[in-house]
Amino acid sequence: MKKLDKLIIKTFLGPFVATFFVTLFVLVMQFLWKYVDDLVGKGLDTVVIIQLIAYTSATLVTLALPLAVLLSSIMTFGNLGESFELVALKSSGISLLRFIRPLMVVCSIIGFLAFLFANYVIPVANLQAKSLLYDITNSKPAFNIKAGVFYRDIPGYTIKVAQKDKDNQTIHQVMIFDNQSGGGDKVILAEKGQMVLTANKRFLYFILENGWRYEERGNRGYTVPGDMIRLGFKKYSKAFDLSSFAFNRLNMDLFASNQQMLNVRQLDVAIDSLEKAQTIFGKTVNAYVTVRFPFFRWKDSAWAATAPPLKVKEFENIIPEKNRRAVLDRAEQSVRETLGSLDAPTKEYSEKHSVILMHKVEWQRKFTLAAACVVMFLIGAPLGSIIRKGGLGTPLVFAVIFFVIFNIFFMIGEKMARSGVMFTWSGMWLSNIVLLPIAGFLIYKAMNDSNLFNKEFYFRIYQKVKKFLQKIKSKKQPTI
């Protein structure tokens, strides 16, 4: 490796690492902002939140890499152009393609590592992240009784306290309505009390003072009224089971069959199995149709090679008038029964076909995002040498513009591939196909020292156009 190659690689790696972590942080913040309502108020441990952020960060690596490559390549070549190092290299006879060759190799290695990461690490991270997020979103909010509000999250109980002290334990004017018993209702009223939570957070005790217990004994629905019992107390302890509020993890095997949790080899096996199962529907449809609509062809010498033309305008005229109604009713009934019997297979076929498309989309995704690293570099390197601006301002603007273009076409292509409008390969590679001609155009302009983003270049064009229009205007004016 020559010193020039080491110089350009060293110049590129610093901005790449920094922009990668910044991009990953932005994407993780976007995820947290999306699910903030599901995370807040659940009483989650710090370990659970760290695990969720770590697994989510791993799933976003392949999306952050193309943007990091694009931004860092623009910054690298922009800095070199701003300090006139590119001019010095070109004047010494080194072409732009030779200069970007080592970084092309580096970005190809990054793309290959991105594919390996997407194939072996992301399926595991997706399994952990999706299952953990499912458990969090389906867990109950943390136990929190507010003053003056009826609390009904504990099964079988309705609790209301008129006032809570600042210690969050002392409560006043307590009312507990117990309707979980098989018999009558129970109501507990107390002037004040204490809320005490056990060390394992499994049970909550209400230690009440100066109150009354009301209980109605007797079965509901009978004409004979039951007994109403009232018991007074100076101190009474009531226990509540909070096991339903505990954060529990489901078996992750329930999510393991999803296409996002599979690598390329597993996706190949799943797609092959699904396509074989899909062939069963053809036999089912054939069985339903041919039974009700038989078409017999007798092997007879009188059978004509082609059907003779009908001598009547309408098919109904062939049928005798006395049998016409019965024949048409029978045909209509057969069509209706056939369509009714095909409803369930049609729906199942559509669902199976959607699953196959999603598996194929996921298969293509592992390659398209890896290839996007190379495509983004082919855009960023010539773009940086053209704009000749370093730092984070101008390169960030251009990087965001091209990344938005990439993301829009990527989402459009994926949606079309999932719906079957486009082939899965063409839909998933749509963004790269759109950006490749742009990359070729920018490389051509950069090799020819284009003034594509030079303000003076466009100002000179404006002056020439202005003079040309003035000349035409002067020719049109009549001479006196």
From TrEMBL:
Keywords: Cell membrane, Membrane, Transmembrane, Transmembrane helix. It comes from Chitinophaga flava. GO terms for biological process: lipopolysaccharide transport. The chain crosses the membrane at residues 12-33, 53-78, 99-122, 367-387, 394-413, 425-444. This is YjgP/YjgQ family permease. PANTHER family: SLR0882 PROTEIN-RELATED, YJGP_YJGQ FAMILY PERMEASE. GO terms for cellular component: ATP-binding cassette (ABC) transporter complex. Pfam families: LptF_LptG. It is found in: Cell membrane. InterPro entries: LptG/LptF_permease. It is a multi-pass membrane protein.
